[in-house]
Amino acid sequence: MSETQAQQTQAHQTQVPDSRSGGCQCGAVRFKTHGKLGRASICHCRMCQKAFGGFFGPLVSAPEEGPGTGLEWTRGEPTYFQSSVNIDRGFCKRCGTPLTYRHPHGVELAIGAFDSRDDLAPQIQVNFDSHIPWVTAIFEAAKREAADDAAKQEQIISFQHPDHDTEQWPEKGLHL
Question: Are 104 and 22 in contact (CB under 8 A)?
């Protein structure tokens, strides 16, 4: 980590909120955390690859339960799939967004499900022996400029829930 990155990380850590919100893509499931989040990580195990439909699972430990701390479901709740003897994974049954990883020692939340996630950089890689061999080089691949996609993006009508809490949200999402 460069000196500049370390300074940015430290600046973010001093501004970390005690309460955060997040949820699924369609808005049917929303949560709020109260208290300090734990360690952010990415897991390379095959179960996380399948559960997230990606190259790894980005997770952060939820605050421990206690007076004024913990995890609160503010709209709906996840549906759970027991992926192994001690682990179950929560997801939105409507849109499929991965949300939680529950294990005997607590709950971890999908980093991408948070409304604000810029300061949730993973601090460790777990089960690295299971990583896809080329995953360490993907950010060296050619990059397409955002301007190339601008015209296409203007044609998209998004039904995704915004990155903030809403008083109301259509139970079955938005549709044309």
Answer: no
CATH number of the structural domain spanning residue 125: 2.170.150.70
Residue 169: inside a domain, yes or no? no
Alpha-carbon distance 108 to 48, whole Å?
12
For residue 111, give the amino acid letter.
Answer: I
Q: Could you tell me which residue, 17 or 170, shows the higher pLDDT?
A: 170
Range(s) of the domain holding residue 22? 18-135+145-154
Place 14 in a pLDDT band, splitting at 50, 70 and 90: very low
| Dist. CA 59–CA 48, nearest whole Å | 10
Judge whether 21 and 99 are in contact, CB under 8 Å. Answer: no
For 13-46, letters b (16+ CB in 10 Å) and e give eeeeeeebbbbbbbbbbbbbbbbebbebbbbbbe
The answer to whether residue 124 sits within a structural domain is: yes
The mean pLDDT value for 150-171 works out to: 73
